[in-house]
Amino acid sequence: MILVTGGAGYIGSHTNKALHNAGYDTVVVDNLCKGYETFAKWGNFEDYDFGSKDLREVFEKYDIDGVLHFAAFSSVAESVELPQKYFKNNYKNTLNLLQIMREFGVDKFILSSTAAVYGNPEKVPITEDQELKPINPYGHSKWITEKALEREAQKGDFNYVSLRYFNAAGCDFDCEIGELHDPETHLIPLVLDAAIGKRDSISIFGTDYNTPDGTCIRDYIHVNDLASAHIAAYEYLCEKNESNIFNLGNGQGYSVREIIDMCKKVTGRDFKVDIADRREGDPDILIADASKIEKELGWKPKYDLECIVSSAWKWHQKVNDI
Ligand code: UFG
């Protein structure tokens, strides 16, 4: 049985569905502070906070072999406003989970880490061995969690894989689940809100970045590609007695303006675009070198930007009932 924390959230639910389709038994643990119970319909569901001591009850009830840990706060902007909230939930509460895993002898762990651990990288595409210099509390909270895992693995009888996601986007092709944050802060769903008429315009946060068109460049990866990478990483942990860290991205960067253009193309709709100030904590460019996971686990992403935006648009139309 695999424990999936945050399995009622965006990336966790897509991975839980993929695990189920691959024949794994799962139990989702989610306190529904961000997730939706309807997103956790595959396998078992338990309403617990992963930072609570009561979480032991889940380990007593199910025979857990490994943990996929998605539950976390993930807004860069909010983390700048509320750093303690991020260190407490993303780092301190993960220590609680690790302690309970140790008590029950559960030795396989996959962390949802992030490209935000690199900060403003010295060179792109970014390889896993680049120096980690997070520039926002969110990135810092994941960096320190990776350090805790490294030390835990050094103690023995415990292995982990840290997956550093670049920009997760897109939705389930069956439209059973999708991206639904409240409030929404991510670029693609906000642009689609403008396309669907839920907002009057989309604002570009800064046009003076060190990029060809002045807007930030990111590497967008389909959520189903993230899901399949988790399965590959879990199989690796089952086969080998070692830990590892991998980037998950497409290896291609798109600027904010290019994303807006792709959304206009896919939706066939036009909308107003405003220029706003920079958002604090945003690095200029984040593009993954994801060759390590391809070489070591044979995983590579399948879906390109157009597919990402098309799947997001289909879901967006469904949830907005249009
Ligand atoms: N942006 C806008 N206007 C908006 C919203 C976003 O211009 O209305 C810009 C942002 O400034 C940024 C880019 O679009 O330059 C992407 O922003 P998102 O909020 O969609 O994503 P982030 O790159 O800030 O962060 C995401 C995840 C993080 C993760 C990071 C890693 O939310 O958890 O990708 O690359 F760390």
From TrEMBL:
**Molecular function as annotated in GO:** UDP-glucose 4-epimerase activity
Task: For this entry, list what GO says about its biological process.
Answer: galactose catabolic process via UDP-galactose, Leloir pathway
Q: Which CDD domains match?
A: UDP_G4E_1_SDR_e
Name the keywords, alphabetized. Carbohydrate metabolism, Isomerase, NAD
User: NAD(P)-binding domain: from which residue to which, for each copy?
Assistant: 3-310
Cofactor(s) needed, names only, are: NAD(+)
Could you confirm whether the keyword Disulfide bond appears in this record? Answer: no
Q: Which family does it belong to?
A: Belongs to the NAD(P)-dependent epimerase/dehydratase family.
Q: What is this protein called?
A: UDP-glucose 4-epimerase GalE
Q: Which organism is it from?
A: Methanobrevibacter millerae
**Taxonomic classification:** Archaea, Methanobacteriati, Methanobacteriota, Methanomada group, Methanobacteria
Encoding gene (name): galE
